[in-house]
Automatic annotation (TrEMBL):
Protein name: Uncharacterized protein
Record-linked SMART domains: LRR_CC
């Protein structure tokens, strides 16, 4: 299968869910993901996801409790991200 876009709005995803998504063979094709409002995720899950989803062009992390650690990982891992 292939993914290009994924919204997690209304889901109850935790870091374990992000780790599971990160291990999918098609995560490298992911170009857009919305993690908006996911209170159950931390830097650990976001860092792992962005390190594997290097094709990301759009990322919504609004309403989360992530810190600068995730932002640095996004900057380092997502060269195609659009502002």
């Amino acid at each position: 299968r292939s993914w290009s876009s994924r919204s997690c709005w209304g889901c109850h995803i935790t870091d374990q869910g992000l780790l599971d998504i990160s291990s999918a063979a098609c995560v490298g094709n992911l170009t857009s993901v919305s993690l908006w409002g996911l209170a159950g995720i931390t830097d650990k899950g976001v860092v792992h996801l962005v390190s594997r989803a290097r094709s990301l062009q759009h990322l919504n992390i609004g309403g989360t409790f992530i810190t600068d650690e995730s932002l640095y990982a996004v900057a380092d891992s997502c060269p195609n991200l659009k502002v």
